[in-house]
Amino acid sequence: MAALLPTASGTPAATEIPVEPPAGMRRRKWIPYALLAPGLLWLAVFFVYPVFQLVMASLWDPSGSVETGYTFAWAFSNYADAWEMFHVQFLRSLGYALITTVVCLLLGYPLAYAIAIKGGRWKNLMLVGVIAPFFTSFLVRTYAWKAILSDSGPVVDFLKWAHLLGPDGRLLATEFAVIAGLVYNFLPFMVLPLYASLDKLDVRLLEAARDLYHGPVRSFFRVTLPLSMPGVIAGTLLTFIPSAGDYVNAQLLGGPNTQMIGSVIQSRFLVVNDYPIASALSVMLMVTILVLVTIYVSTAGTEEVV
Amino acid sequence: MTDQDLCIENVTKTFGGFTAVDDLTLTIPDGSFFALLGASGCGKTTTLRMVAGLEEPNAGRITLGGLDITRMRPYKRPVNTVFQSYALFPHMSVEDNVAFGLRRKGENRAETRRKVAEMLDLVQLGQYGSRRPAQLSGGQQQRVALARALVNNPEVLLLDEPLGALDLKLRRQMQIELKRIQTEVGITFVHVTHDQEEAMTMADTVAVMQAGRIEQLGAPAEMYEFPASAFVANFLGQSNLIKAEVTGQADGHVTVDAHGNRLAVPAGRCRVTSGTALLGVRPEKLHLADGPDAVPSGHAAVQGVVTDASFTGVSTQYLVRAPWGSELTVFVPNSGIANPALPGTEVAVHWSPAHSFLVGS
C-alpha cells in the first residue's frame, strides 16, 4: 500500500549492508512503538470499537426497536433484507462514484499537469486556487451549488435561453446535479496527489522520449502517465471512496430518484431508527469498497509504480 | 567530404539577452569522433541540443547529409542522444529502455529482441537486461544510456558530458570503451565535454569553444603543439606564456624581446608577427641546466631560481621564478639519473625554439 502515497519514491539501494546497531541504539527499540501508541489508541477507541459495534448491530434481531431494545441474534437475514430493499440505491451510489471518479480524473489530470509542468512561478498560486474551496465548509459550498442550479438560477436561465433545456426542464434533483456536486467537491482530492506525482516527473525523461522517436502523445502514454500512476491511484481512491458514501450532495442537489446509499443509511439510522438494516448497509458498503479497492490496486499494477 | 556530414551554418541561439551560440559554423565529417570542448556556459551543450532538436536556433541552418533538419521535430531526426543525467526510464527494465526507440520505429519483435541483446552485449551488460535502472551502478547506467541511443543506428550520436558523473578510474575505462565502440559501429559521435584530456584521448577532431564561438578546431596533437590563442594554450593542457615584443624577422624566425631576453620563434609557429605577443612553451618541453654554460647550443634560455619542486611520480614539477617575477612551470621526467634541484638553486631554463610558439596577447 506504500505505493499509494505519491510521495513514496525510489527503490532502496541495491546493496544495503545490514549493520548491527550499537548497544545504545538497540536499547531504544521501544521508541517506534511509543510513537505509534497515541495514534493506535485513538484508532482503537474511535475506529476499531465502532466498527465492531456496527458489525454486531447488523446482526441484531430485526424485531427489536429503540424503545424495546435489541438482542444479538446472528441475524444474517438483515443483509438479505437490506439488499432487497436498497440495492437500487446501493448500485446507483457505486455508479455515481465511478462516474465522479472518471470525470475528476479527466478534469484533474490536465489541471495537475498544467500546474506541475507549465506552472512556473504561478505554481503556488494555482495550488492555492485548488485548495481555496476548503476554506469554506463542505455543506455551505453544496448549498451554494443548490442556489446556482436552482430552477430560477442563472444556469437554468441560460440553458433555457439557449434552448438546451425545455421550458419545464430543471437541473436540481437530476443525476447531473448530484454528479456535478460530487465532482466539484472531490476534484481537489484528485488534483493534489496527481500534482504531487507530476511535479516529481523529470522533464529530461520527456526529452529522452522525444529523442527516441516518440511524439508528444506517445511520450505521454509511455512515460508521463506510467510515472504518474501513484498519483492516479491515490487520486482515484481519494475520490471514489468518499463519493460512494457521500449523502450531502444527493440530499441537497438530488431528488428521490437520485438517492444514494449514504442518504439511506443516514435516514435508517436517524429518521427510521432501523439500526440493524442501517448497520448492515454500512458494513456492505465498507466491504464492497474494500474489495473493489483491493482488486483495483492489484490490477492497476504497483509494479509499474516506482 | 561524404554525403552524411553534419553541417552547422551560421547558427545563433540566444536565451533572453544571453547569446549562447554566436554565429557558429562547423562541419562534422561523417564517421568521425568529434569533441566539442569548452568551459561550462560556452555554448557546447546548446549546440548539441540544437542538433538533437531540443532547442531551435534563432538564426542559421543545420543540415545532415544535405537534408535541412533545422526545424525538424526531435522525434523525426535520425539523431540520438546520450544525456548527461542518462535520463533512463525508471519504470522500465534495461531491455525495455534499450528497445524504446526500436519499438517506435516499428521493428518486428524478434528483430528488436535480437538487436537489444546484441547491443547489451556490446556494452557488456548482457546479464542485466531484466533489471531496473535503479539497480545498476552509475557506470552501468551510463552504458545503458549509450546502448539505448546506439541501438537505433542513428546517423549521428550526440553525447552530452556522458562521463561527467563517473569517478576518475571508471571515466578512463569508459573513454577507451567509447572509442572502441565508435570504431566498431562507425557512427559519427559528437561528444560534448569540459575535460580537455577526455577530448584529446577520444576525439579525432576537437573544437574548443568559448563564448558561443569556436576558438580553434583541429586534431588534438596539432592543437596541443600549436594552439591558436592564449585561451587554447591554457585550456588544452598547461602552457608557460611569456609576454614579448616582436622586434623583427630574420631567416625564417621571428625575433622577440621578452623582458630583455632576445628569443626567436620559427616563423611557421607564429600566430602573430608584430606588436605585443605571448611566447608559449609547454612545461614538458622546458629543461633545466645548472647555468648558462650548460645550455645546449641552439636552445633559448632564461635564468631563474627554483622556488618549488614537487615530485609526482612520473615527473618532478618545478616552479622557477624568472628575473621579471613570473614563474615558469617545468616538468622534468623522472628517468632516475639527475638529483632534483632544491628550492633556491639558480638554474637556466632552456628549450628548443622549435618547441615554442607565438600567440596574440
From TrEMBL, chain A:
ABC transmembrane type-1 domain: residues covered: 90-296
Gene Ontology process terms (BP): transmembrane transport
Superkingdom per UniProt: Bacteria
Chief location category: membrane
Keywords, in A-Z order: Cell membrane, Membrane, Transmembrane, Transmembrane helix, Transport
Membrane topology, as annotated: Multi-pass membrane protein
Transport listed as a keyword: yes
One Pfam family matching this protein: BPD_transp_1
InterPro entries attached to this UniProt entry: MetI-like, MetI-like_sf
Keyword Zinc-finger: no
One Gene Ontology cellular component: plasma membrane
Transmembrane segments: 30-52, 94-113, 125-144, 176-198, 219-241, 277-297
Annotated compartments: Cell membrane
Family listed: Belongs to the binding-protein-dependent transport system permease family. CysTW subfamily.
Protein name: ABC transporter permease
Organism: Catellatospora coxensis
UniProtKB/TrEMBL annotation, chain B:
Reactions catalysed according to its record: ATP + H2O + polyamine-[polyamine-binding protein]Side 1 = ADP + phosphate + polyamineSide 2 + [polyamine-binding protein]Side 1
Highest taxon listed in the record's lineage: Bacteria
Keyword list, A-Z: ATP-binding, Cell membrane, Membrane, Nucleotide-binding, Translocase, Transport
GO MF entries: ABC-type putrescine transporter activity; ATP binding; ATP hydrolysis activity
EC number: 7.6.2.11
PROSITE patterns in the cross-refs: ABC_TRANSPORTER_1 (PS00211), ABC_TRANSPORTER_2 (PS50893)
Record-annotated ABC transporter domain positions: 6-236
Cellular compartments per GO CC: ATP-binding cassette (ABC) transporter complex
Claim: ATP-binding is one of the keywords in the record: yes
Pfam families registered for this protein in UniProt: ABC_tran (PF00005), TOBE_2 (PF08402)
Family label: Belongs to the ABC transporter superfamily. Spermidine/putrescine importer (TC 3.A.1.11.1) family.
Job of this protein: Part of the ABC transporter complex PotABCD involved in spermidine/putrescine import. Responsible for energy coupling to the transport system.
Subunit composition and interactions: The complex is composed of two ATP-binding proteins (PotA), two transmembrane proteins (PotB and PotC) and a solute-binding protein (PotD).
Name of the protein described by the UniProt record: Spermidine/putrescine import ATP-binding protein PotA
Organism: Catellatospora coxensis
Gene behind the chain: potA
